[in-house]
Write a structure and sequence with these properties.
The protein is α/β, with parallel strands linked by helices and 543 residues long. It has two domains: 306 residues, 3-Layer(aba) Sandwich (Alkaline Phosphatase, subunit A), CATH 3.40.720; 108 residues, Orthogonal Bundle (Non-ribosomal Peptide Synthetase Peptidyl Carrier Protein, Chain A). Strands 5-6-4-3-7-1-8-15-2-16 form a ten-stranded mixed beta sheet, sandwiched between helices. α12 runs parallel beside α14, α17 packs across α18 and α18 packs antiparallel against α19. The protein is globular, with a radius of gyration of 23 Å.
Amino acid sequence: MRKRVYQFTGLALIIVIIATGCSGMQAGRMAPDSGKTKNVILIIGDGMGPEQVGLLLSYARQAPHTVIKDRKTAFDRMMNDGGVMGISMTYPSGVLVTDSAASGTQLATGQFAGSEMIGADKDGNPVETILEKTIKTGKSTGLVSDTRLTHATPAAFAAHQPHRSMENEIAVDMLNAGPDVMLSGGLRYWIPQEANDKDSAVYKELAQMTQGSVKIKSKREDSRNLLKEAQEKGYALAFNRAQMEAAEGRLLGLFAYSAMPDGITVTHTLNSPERTIPTLKEMSAKALQVLSKNEKGFFLMIEAGMIDWAAHNNDTGLMLHEMMRLNETVDYVLDWVKNREDTLVIVTADHTTGGFGISYNAKDLPDGRNLSGTLFQGREFKPGYNFGNPDVLDKIYNQQLSYGDIFYGRFDSLPKEQQTPAMLAKIVNEYTEFDISEDQAARVLATEENPFFVEGHSSLGNKLVPKMGPTGAFFVYQTDDNRQNLLAREVAADQMVVWNTGTHTATPVLVFAKGSPGAMAPFGDVLHHTQLSRYAIEVITNR
């Protein structure tokens, strides 16, 4: 019989946040900004709810061998250096739960949006974004993401389309909007369909331009070469780290066919001399270098987008590494703004994903032990539940491959006759520190009947998208292959975690702000993303 797992709710945390944030807000409003702030840096952790922030904080403060310096995260730095903290609701028009397109649109426009819309209000009309408004002031603008440039969140700041899946059209919109810096993955939407012919002139030209750094394959259905159009508009092009670092002026960097490498891959290749793909931190640094040359100021949106992807797959180890990538990026930005009074930094999320929590359970109950305290003389200290040894945090961090790479990169590449439960258990046990048995592997490979899918087109280009399932259902977001979620279920008790779903939740997200007191004051409140956006627009346009 499966033992029951218990989880604390986030209510107490939310109450503390509200109190803390409102306190900071009242203090901050005593000192108006007076138009001193000319730069706004908005950092979005896609899918990063309070639960994901909590995982990072737990790892930093409690893991015996944490790699986080001085056990202080970037969130600690923001708050310890006079920042404010609030919370923000994320729901779009007429529904309870948001997707990234609607939420990104609300963060970009300050207007309520409809589900899956890009850069549009709830009625489907295009709405001017904070990026577009900033351009009108003569300031510079930039977009950075570790997913795809045309993916929902960055798209929402520079495109206007009825659906997030229209990435060919979104790419055209983004180029026409004209941010000074665009750095991400997703080359496939920027090159003509003729590039799929390896004997074509355009393929050979692209192979030379990219220096073999990016897979050349188009998902366009026309002959438009947006790279050529970008060059005609004055953009330098970059497809690897060296090209990015050498580039001057306006810059379009596309460093992957689709999404960029996941957080575990980045961790393990960071110091490799053979690494050609820039990290989120390195892209952000380049963007700041370019944008800060404009004396009038700039707006920069940075997205750590793969926190969300890890949470959709219920991959705790990968999610921690994605949070580490965001943490080092925010740390860099805080170093950059240190001693500046002209820059507002906002760190938030578009929504929460996964219903994640670190939880106690009834598996592997601790042995009793003697304590020196007077209350325990003649009595053992023996809790009735396993409340979790902090060592588990190191084990989570020590994961060597994402669940996606375990299945698609290792297991699925084997001959069919070798794709057995015993082989899956061997691979999982080799690349993670949470062993599974052959019986557990068999349950994972059996998957489970999932009636909550309909034919359609998802944001990641698959042909199956989910209908809404019952509360607590384990199903993956993009596809009917839910092996990653089922693996997460098998190891959850050993990891001391719970996952409620493979989709988004309506849990409010945290908002951290650092800058001049007047500029950051409004963010230390109970907000909705439309309010957060309007405050940021007021700051960047000095209105």
